[in-house]
Amino acid sequence: MVPDTAKSAPASALAVKPLSSVGAAEVEGIDLSQDLDPAEVAAVLAAIAGNPVLIFRNQRLSKDRQARFSGCFGELEGHIARLSDGRTFPTVHTLTNLGADGSLINMDVARLNWFWHTDKSYHAVPAFVTILHAVEVPPSGGDTQFSDARMAYDALTPGMKARIDGLRAVHDWVASRINSGTSPATAEQRRTRPPVSHPLVRTHPDTGRKSLYLGVHVSHIEGLPQAESAALLAELTDHIGQERFIYTHGWRKGDVVMWDNRCLLHRALPNYEIARHPRVLNRTVVVGTRPR
Asked: What separation in angstroms does the CA of 258 have from each of 24, 165, 175, 222, 228?
């Protein structure tokens, strides 16, 4: 659960510099490798309520310290997928393209991230925030894009809003693998993560703003014929991909980026020499609340 302090602390307790009209901001004057006091935690939560993408520059975090920082905002969770060697993902896991010997690793899971999605939407209780710490980045490219699903919803025509309000979409790890063209879900994954239904239009639990809630994890829209469902999902996905809703983050070594999955979609861009330049990001995910 998200701490109640998210609603009480002033964002002015931190130096927050807006970077984009899409709600991205740089937070200055805080060292995430040190324990945060309750006022700092509250200030970060207040800042992300107004700026759903927060960037902390020049941070140096061990995995233990990243887990400690991330744990300030709720329960941490693992991942349904497996690492290239078959092991389960640890709570703080590394996203990378190159192995220890410098060779390209199995990019099967990584390819899924090249499609618009919101983290863990195939869970009954999806993610609140995701936190990535850049350990190594390519000399150029390897960017992450964020689409503000609130702005995308606001820009819909009244007719489209009336059409989709009240609809529910089925999010499913099986469909996610099919939609992204990656390896099929295993029997264990099918059993542990059955399909779940969420509102196509989600209301943010803190701000009350509506946003589109969809992405690569969606199988179909309940109650619609398959063709109509697929066409509507494609239309809305094209809509959220418009440049006016997007912030593109160019990674710097030491960046920590924290974003609110409850009102954003994101995707990684494979716009770098994947087999040549390492891209190493440590990732944590904080459990959120059931979409309403």
From this structure: 10, 29, 27, 32, 35
